Amino acid sequence: MSTPLIELQNAGKNYLNYSFNISIKEGSCLLVHGKNGSGKTTLIHLLLGFVKPDFGKVIKKNMIVNYLSEKVMLPLYIKVIDYLENMAKIKRGEVDYNLLYNFKIPLFKGIHQLSKGNQQKLALATTMMGQAKLFILDEPLSGLDEESINVLFNKIKSLKEEGSSFVISTHQPYRFLSIIDETLEL
Amino acid sequence: MIKWLFRHDFHFKKTLICLVTIWVIILVLILLVWPSNSMLEYQLFYEHYQIESKVIINQTLKICLPFLVLIMVMEHDQPYLRPLFAYFGVVKIQIYKYIMYYLVYSFVFAYLIIFVEAIKSYLPVVFSLTADDFNFYLQLYLDNMILMNMIFYFIRDKRRILSLLFGLLFYFISLYYEDSNSKIYYLLPLYHPHYKDFTFAIIYKLWYLLFGLCLCVRKNSMETIQ
């Protein structure tokens, strides 16, 4: 049996009425869904270590985590291609040109010139880069068209086959049925 | 990593604004000290003019430099660093960021001082770089690093405009220090005419800076990331 990458043992925040008991194993895909304000982003921030739990414990393996935030967070005044190459350099990964081609992101435009959907695709492409074992994606489908959603699912499937784990928070759980292993409804 | 942070933070627009600010400071200095009287008058009041020019240059630098630092540093808490916090760890990214800002500031400061010395060399009175000047520049350099630390500690993305308050605080405190032998210096060791020649003034300031940096790193490791 594989050891969990992250384990939450009765961990939670005072403003939530419940605690989390979650264990994320290698190669698994956990889908988190629920109403607005139910604690999805809090759970993700607990997993990332961005917030400390008010009670309970978070046990985390020493590993690299790739995170896609709910709101697209990109530097605006730089060209897409420069940003991708710089990110690949610091993450010691490679630019996945195949993914970029499938996403149809204009590479030679400034990031501030991209539409919301294209910015989301760029954020996804940079999140998929690097040597992370765990990917935490908060609302990955936001602003994506049908074609791009299929490209994203194929990428997630191939990374899962390589042993990567995923935690995905979404308001559209039915779309992920083909790739998820576990579901957590909040 | 430092190069990456520099490329993303100092984009074309911001670099242009910084360069324009530097040139405005240089232009103000030139306008303030440029000779407007006859050479005979300068020779007659040689020492007076020498002291006056020096005071004008030093005061202008003391007032303008904090605002240049504000322009450079007020946007330090960029949202696009959040995904990197998850990948590399918060403390690592923040330390690299501080090093990047210190390096850029050191470069800008050196650039400005070279121009100041060049302006001095064109004035009708002779200035030589004395130990006193060197002490002043060093204190000024460290003062603005203290300002940077304060911005790193207190200013976050959504409150960046508040950093102007720190600029004003520095300005009023330096005015206050001009006329008083205040013990507030120990709380905020900015350039003070009374304490400037104390043997431990620089060491105290360096310790203060290091302590501030440690507090920033500690805050970064403890705080909630939104």
Instruction: Report the largest inter-chain contact.
Output: A-B, 30 and 21 residues
- Percent strand of chain B: under 5%
The unreliable regions of chain A are: none
First-residue to last-residue Cα separation of chain B: 23 Å
Oligomer: heterodimer
Number of helices of chain A: 5
What composes the largest sheet of chain B? none
**Major sheet details of chain A:** 5 strands, parallel
Individual helix count of chain B: 9
For the record, give the distance between the C-alpha atoms at the N and C termini of chain A, rounded to a whole number: 27 Å
For the largest beta sheet of chain A, what order do the strands appear in spatially?
5-6-7-3-8
Task: State the secondary-structure class of chain B.
Answer: mainly alpha
* Computed CA radius of gyration of chain B, to the nearest angstrom: 19 Å
Alpha-carbon Rg of chain A, integer: 16 Å
**How many E-type strands of chain B?**
0
Taken as a percent bin, the fraction of beta residues of chain A is 15-25%
Count of strand segments of chain A: 8
Order of helices and strands of chain B: HHHHHHHHH
Key terms for this structure?
heterodimer, A: 186 residues, alpha/beta, 5-stranded parallel sheet, 3-stranded antiparallel sheet, 24% strand, globular, B: 226 residues, mainly alpha
